[in-house]
Every structure is written in structure tokens, then in C-alpha cells.
């Protein structure tokens, strides 16, 4: 059985509230879980200490048992100093797409032709 430390959504419509739980990877997002290990309230300001609440002893115990945190939970664990999140690097992310490159080339060609005819 593969275990995940992940978020389950609660709260009302447009007022999300998440519990951080340990669950079987095959169970649905808001379905059955094994143990609640924290909470996350995205409606609170980022600098509020009550935004993310973790029971560190439980989290450490589950990590030792082999539970894998999801990406978002790994961010919380890294901020709390419980796990290390590897840095990511995607140099292609800032690069424009194919269509944008084609439009830029056409614009440059059109500007070059206009400059030649003006002289």
C-alpha cells in the first residue's frame, strides 16, 4: 500500500479549507484517510502562522514509514524544516512559443521593410 501525505478539501463554496492527511494513494481526494496530520487555510494571509498547522511528530513518523508528500505538502514541510524540496529549473518556461516567435519575426521583417522604403 503506497501512502501519500496530501490535502483534502473542505469548507464552503469559494471558502476553501484543507486538511493535511495521510491516505492510501488509491483513495479519492476527499475520501477515506488514515490520519489527520495538519491543516491549511489559504484564506489567511501568507505571514499568518495559523495558515499552515502541522503536527510535526506525526509527520516525521509517517515520513519514516515511507509516506510520500505531494508537491504542495512538500512546500509546507520544507518551510517547516521537516523535508527538503529540490529546486526546480525550467529555462524553457520564459521562452516564447512557436507562434509568438513567428509573429515577432514577421513584425521585425515588416519594420525592416518600412525602414528601407523610408530612406
TrEMBL record:
Residues 96-110 have a biased composition (Basic and acidic residues). This is Small ribosomal subunit protein bS16. One of its GO terms (biological process) is translation. The keyword Membrane does not apply. Residues 81-119 are annotated as: Disordered. One of its GO terms (molecular function) is structural constituent of ribosome. GO terms for cellular component: cytoplasm; small ribosomal subunit. Keywords: Ribonucleoprotein, Ribosomal protein. The keyword Ribonucleoprotein applies. Belongs to the bacterial ribosomal protein bS16 family. It comes from the Bacteria. Pfam families: Ribosomal_S16. InterPro entries: Ribosomal_bS16 (IPR000307), Ribosomal_bS16_CS (IPR020592), Ribosomal_bS16_dom_sf (IPR023803). It comes from Methylobacterium indicum.
Amino acid at each position: 500500500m503506497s501512502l501519500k501525505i496530501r490535502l483534502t478539501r473542505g469548507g464552503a463554496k469559494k471558502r476553501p479549507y484543507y486538511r493535511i492527511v495521510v491516505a492510501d494513494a488509491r483513495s479519492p481526494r476527499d475520501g477515506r484517510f488514515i490520519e489527520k496530520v495538519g491543516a491549511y487555510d489559504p484564506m489567511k494571509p501568507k505571514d499568518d502562522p495559523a495558515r499552515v498547522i502541522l503536527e510535526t511528530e506525526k509527520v516525521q513518523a509517517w515520513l519514516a514509514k515511507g509516506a510520500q508528500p505531494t508537491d504542495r505538502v512538500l512546500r509546507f514541510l520544507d518551510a517547516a524544516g521537516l523535508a527538503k524540496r529540490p529546486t526546480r529549473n525550467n529555462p524553457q518556461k520564459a521562452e516564447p512559443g512557436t507562434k509568438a516567435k513567428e509573429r515577432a519575426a514577421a513584425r521585425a521583417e515588416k519594420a525592416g521593410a518600412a525602414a528601407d522604403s523610408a530612406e
